[in-house]
Amino acid sequence: MIEECCGMHLVCEKETLLQPNPEIIYYDDEELDTYIGRPAESYSAAETEQFAYILHTMLEKDVAGWVRSLQLRNISLPLSVRDEALLIVREQRAKA
Fold it and tell me: What is the pLDDT of residue 61?
């Protein structure tokens, strides 16, 4: 069976290589577990803002781990927040 692409290559490749143990780490975001299994395009503006708030209040160096945590929990980021998170991850990798 071929798994579908999640669109999060920047995060998947780095985090999978560095963390062979798929332990879920929470980033003070347990409330997002209510969105398990929701499609990325199904969020309301208020729900999207909840994700954006968490993204904007964390350290940039933690964003890749947060996105990996969401993936392990089967939580899709709203599309606009996903794009912003990936940009932050790219910028962090460029600095490294």
Answer: 93
Virtual CA dihedral for 80, 37, 6, 81, nearest 10 degrees? Answer: 10
Rounded Cα distance between 96 and 40, Å, is 29
Q: What percent of the chain has pLDDT over 70?
A: 78
**pTM to 2 decimal places:** 0.78
Question: In a 3-state reduction of DSSP, which class is residue 42?
Answer: helix
Q: What contacts 87, CB < 8 A, 6 or more positions away? A: none
* Interior/surface letters 33-57, b for 16+ CB within 10 angstroms, e for the rest: eebeeeebeebeeebbebbbebbee
Q: Is 84 exposed, middle or buried (0-12, 13-18, 19+ CB in 10 A)?
A: middle
